[in-house]
């Protein structure tokens, strides 16, 4: 299934009014289990940043811009750089954020993560559902290491190799046709990060049995409905009125469990701190 055309059309509809954009961001944060993990970790990491300077955050592959907006809104001193290779995504996101009090704390730029031009140092990098779209992932990780402040972190959310992208059996096609890989194994991703000079801090399997069930009910089936006919958009409010309570309960259960397996992989890594940064120095290059 080609997911991007549906996503692009939803983004275009939402961009027609700021209230629709806020609604879209709210739904993305509510329905997608990945957002529950990402937002929790962002709060934890940025909440622990030194208070003597603004935290700098790189939203690598910002898409709709919901995470850049979340960071800027939640952390009033944070400075966010949001990059993507798609100009239309950046233009829509900028048009919305420019109408908010966070406008002067988010800057937007076209940037290819495999040849990253954005200059650090950053305290935090977000790469949420990005790496499965990029063949040369090792180059991206090397750039992340280069622009991270010593002691800074990167959050990566991606499908796993345990049924990620809804691939259950050998020969199955990804539910999302734009993916260049089905997913990562936890050890595989950790090894690639280490090879780039990054230190894995923790890796969690997400979308375990409860989260995977929520994904099917809250995301997969509605997307299939929209892929079949956009007239189903009129029926989705009624569908979600029935499906949302159970779906949110399943999401909440997944977040609280230690999943032995899961179709998603959530990993946090850091650039090792220098002796100066351990002793309270700036740690910048």
From TrEMBL:
Keywords per UniProt: Membrane, Methyltransferase, S-adenosyl-L-methionine, Transferase, Transmembrane, Transmembrane helix
Source taxon at top rank: Bacteria
UniProt cross-references to Gene3D superfamilies, sorted A to Z: Vaccinia Virus protein VP39 (3.40.50.150)
Methyltransferase domain sequence ranges: 57-152
Gene Ontology molecular-function annotations: methyltransferase activity
Transmembrane feature ranges: 226-250
GO biological process per UniProt: methylation
Record-given protein name: 2-polyprenyl-3-methyl-5-hydroxy-6-metoxy-1, 4-benzoquinol methylase
Organism: Salinibacter ruber
């Amino acid at each position: 299934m080609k997911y991007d055309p549906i996503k692009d059309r939803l983004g275009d509809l939402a961009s027609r009014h700021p209230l629709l954009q806020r609604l879209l961001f709210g739904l993305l944060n509510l329905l997608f289990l990945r957002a529950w993990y990402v937002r929790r970790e962002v709060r934890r990491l940025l909440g622990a940043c030194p208070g003597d300077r603004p935290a700098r955050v790189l939203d690598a592959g910002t898409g709709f811009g919901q995470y850049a907006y979340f960071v800027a809104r939640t952390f009033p001193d944070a400075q966010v750089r949001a990059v993507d290779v798609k100009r239309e995504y950046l233009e829509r996101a900028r048009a919305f954020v420019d109408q908010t009090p966070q406008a002067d704390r988010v800057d937007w730029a076209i940037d290819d993560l495999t040849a990253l031009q954005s200059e650090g140092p950053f305290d935090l990098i977000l790469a949420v559902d990005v790496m499965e779209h990029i063949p040369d992932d090792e180059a991206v990780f090397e750039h992340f290491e280069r622009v991270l402040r010593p002691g800074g972190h990167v959050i990566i959310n991606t499908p796993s190799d345990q049924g990620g992208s809804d691939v259950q059996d050998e020969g199955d096609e990804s539910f999302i046709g734009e993916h260049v890989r089905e997913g990562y194994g936890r050890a595989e991703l950790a090894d690639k990060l280490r090879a780039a000079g990054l230190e894995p801090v923790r890796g969690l399997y997400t979308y375990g049995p409860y989260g995977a069930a929520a994904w099917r009910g809250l995301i997969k089936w509605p997307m299939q409905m929209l892929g079949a006919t956009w007239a189903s958009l009129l029926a989705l409010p009624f569908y979600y009125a029935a499906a949302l309570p159970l779906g949110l309960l399943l999401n909440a259960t997944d977040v609280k469990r230690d999943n032995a397996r899961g179709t998603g992989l959530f990993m946090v890594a850091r650039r090792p701190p220098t002796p100066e940064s351990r002793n309270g120095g700036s740690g910048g290059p």
